């Protein structure tokens, strides 16, 4: 597959070369002040991206999965109740993780393509009189279906039920690409990784904990060492780390945060929205429907597009890779073969997106779908023509 | 301007990252065998790209302009006659260089957009009974107009006139992207640079000399030191160089030659042809004419597209850069403001080209040209759909 | 601190630039065959480094600490007995991890500077008639003290006791730098990381499991998800990974394994021994003693040097960093302030080591220690003079 | 040869990785403002390094040899008189270049190891009543012998003779490493390259012209195009370049100038002096003499060390490369086999220098010279101990 073409998998994303160069550091002594000069700007910058004044930030040498596990094991004890909805592959995996750790998960089965049911959450929380539920889990952006959920509504459900459960949010494919409001939404644990909105290689789990979550960590009985945030906090307090830190990746994160700040977080979100909207208009021009059930659910980082009955959507991904050297995402789990996914997060320009849409069109025509060459591209172009300059400049 | 987008200037070209990494070498001792292990594969590989068995290859730390000057000063003496046609900016510059060196240039003025007039060359050569003309200059590919000339025809003209003049070819924007036959065409000096078909940074002038040109160098009286191929040949014979060599760039060239060999030279030329043909079909779909006067002249590395009377073609380039972060080429010299140029040489995929065409369309619509969004892209897609895989894979 | 100077901390080690460049990859689709082409050579190469025919290799996006936790949680259940000796900071940490996971640790307190007491292990194992001890933990190379332990002796103890406990070895600072014999020693779980002998950035936990350990993983009740080797094995079987893999680092590991193979594992070990022996002779020339109690315990990857009573060894490290831009290791835990450490593992040449010894001498003289400038360097030179060429060449 | 070890050839020098990364740029449009943002800081920074207010700076895609040729051809006409002394290989080459260009060179033969004879220059200039001598050539630092000449004295000679000749200075191995005063010394053309004090790859000829030299360029009749500073000046005035510029190398130069400014030019010179003095003390400790005849001539960028009669100094260089993977410089021309050279310019720390001295000692002992291991290192250490911190920090 060509390394010249951009990728359109929903993460890891296209990485600006300048970020990769920042990651590519010679060895430093991680017990020297050089490390502190990398660590602290990372912690501050992530807090800023979360729109939080007080979140406790932890950066672990792991992936988003490790971040989820850190959120659970640092705050909960075996047998604790957890409330979660399953509306895609990633919410499914989180539920599975809870079960492996002996948590008592109340699963709300939800159609793949629907958002998280805040009303059902409220109902269940209200009925949980003795507060057996210790944590509510929410996937902000279901990468499998391209569905964005309403975290504020879940917070409102908790508040309406006057329920003390912690609110955990999987923001792996939303944070740094879509608006995220840790403080305003009353999030207790937010989890993401380096390889999505931060435009870096995989290898960092990035998490934010509220004071309440920090307090919970003191009595949490699930075992952990590598992912223990107490050790991590103690290290940070001494400009250190509990073990060898991935200082190169963290140095990249430091620069990524500078880039996001330079572009302006709201401009970053606007750019993601504009590029995503172009993709959606292209899909409409192709006569295809989205997996996401309604416009309020449309994700600005990934679009899952349904193909006609009887057509194997995975063929699009395979042919794009083999014939045109371009990577898209396959459907996962329940929607395997029914959707293909176009990732459009991280470091991306309108021009790059046009190449993705152009290739997708060629592939669909090759495979006999009733799609007109240039149609989706034109729909996106018409949208992109109105307002590209601001964001383009910022991606330099 | 975005560094994420590909560039569509007709050189320097998009550089595969792996080549840039090969250039980025720590310091070696250039008097050690490490240097010879870089130098000799370069010399052999360039010879292969020129399709020559016997050309003497020289790699100078200069640009194409330095390469031209090396060709002249190493073979000619003040007052020598030179035959050249002017059909674009680069042929113009070569004529100017000859004049600065006190050569007696017979200039055949030729329309910009036309090819080199082999018939006029033949006429002039036949009338040059006492062989005052020592060299015939030909620009293989006029980067300013997107016109490819017929070197074999010029060789035939020389042969028909039974004229002993040396045949010099500027292959800066053709070699390694379009077919070039040093031996078959009886070329005496071929000149190119690192930053076009070789997909490297500028900084290497790459030249091939025939035995006849080598012989001429022994009596050539034009002064030179930095560009002296005698010093260079002596250095090479000892695995060395007459001064500090640009070993990093040369290490990149070594890998570039491997990549060209791996893809297969003919596949490289086919890929350039396919991508170029897509661009030409897009231009036709836009209702625009090419600067090149007829299909036999169409260049496979750069297309100069005429815009309607009264429209400033340079505005397209300016707006593409400022609003969409993408670089195209302006018209130069006689065709300034009348054409804009799309470079499509070096490391390029169909997908990348679609992004260039997509942006060009948006810009033209923005500027009020009567162009339909998606029309050029669709024309290119239709062409690209039939046969991309072979070359795509090779560009990895 | 200078980034030009080599580092002499006992890991992360000096990284060959070519390895860092291999890590610095553009994004690939980790669900494509491109990933399998990175993964499988890594698994095979690590197995080779472990000198095993059958070990099951797992490469996790974590550090050595994560690797230890993976070894424990994938094989043991809460309350299981574990036998371990504490003879330094890293064996201490492993014991602490076991306790956090609710394992019943039998700790053999051992002087810092001594090796692991195989005889006491044997005694305890023999007395453990009902086989409550499920795992025996051994730190092959105590990075804190520069002490190498005898794994074969521990295996012999297990065999003498006819005890079925699993044998776990922390090889973080030994594997790929010192001889390691997974099969011959009957190791059940070996753990290392990317940032030591493999000369890469931190970020990969690399572990090998025996068939017996794999079998244990089926009934192990300690909870885990991120570090679950069952998920990992299932991913590998499909050329995949249970989540986003750190493909860049793994691509670096693939090249690192090639480099180790090219140099020859035994040559790598010889080089480490030679460089280490030079350091030890320098220490003797300075009149200083090693932390390691006897020559059979001397580590070839790190040397901990005792300073005279009343002198704060940490001052050496601080001054070397501040005044000469060079990083050495401080004493940890019980030997804090009593020793300083010189790391000499990974990518290192005799010449680099001389610069480290030269700086250490200057620092010690600056601080008033009774050391003669040039004395340690001369002792090392005398040793290095006899046999450098083979390994030097291989480190290119 | 090891790429891990520093090099001690007198250029190209050890390159800070951060500079190489700055050179390694993706393609930009060199006709866009992005290029001007690289070019102008380079011109200003070089002027600052030359300690000039008014020098016209030109940066050509060539090497120092090309820079010399640019100085000559842009200011002189065939038959012009030139005064030059030959005291080493590089002054020899400059004289040869003048002769190839048909200049009338008055050569003052000078012992290799001596400085330029300002008194003889004065004598000759005084006797040149009709001012046939148009230029006086001076090699500031003879890289072949490690001899620094006194430019101010040559200026004084010109002034004493009231002679209008231009003063040309080859500062290839001095500028940016040793004090250079363009304005104060009344230099008319200064020439250097990217690969020495600027710590970059070879590929840029960097020259400064006085107003007087600029005026001379208008009537200079030596032919040139590639190296024509008139074209260059016209390009710069439009933020452009007369042909494709080596923007990557220039981007590296821009950063190099920032690094020199950050360290402080005088600190850079002090650091070079300190490191050089350590090397000289080492040579004294070895009982060896320098090629430079007296302390006032000692170069701070390269030291040429004489070996005893009957010993082939080149063997040292060969053995260091083959057995220890380290590069030193051989003797050239008249002193071939009689001296070996240690380069100590550009990016270098005391610690790196100690490794070079340490290896040199091992090699000399290996080859049977009467040298004591550690002796030279100790002499350098003693000197380096007093004052390293300031400069070390700056080289980070």
UniProtKB/TrEMBL annotation, chains A, B, C, D:
Substrate binds at residue 341. It comes from the Bacteria. The keyword Transferase applies. GO terms for molecular function: alanine-glyoxylate transaminase activity; L-serine-pyruvate transaminase activity. PROSITE patterns: AA_TRANSFER_CLASS_5. Transmembrane segments: none annotated. Its cofactor is pyridoxal 5'-phosphate. InterPro entries: Aminotrans_V_dom, Aminotrans_V_PyrdxlP_BS, AspGlyoxATase, PyrdxlP-dep_Trfase, PyrdxlP-dep_Trfase_major, PyrdxlP-dep_Trfase_small, SP_NH2Trfase/AEP_transaminase. This is Aminotransferase class V-fold PLP-dependent enzyme. It comes from Pontibaca salina.
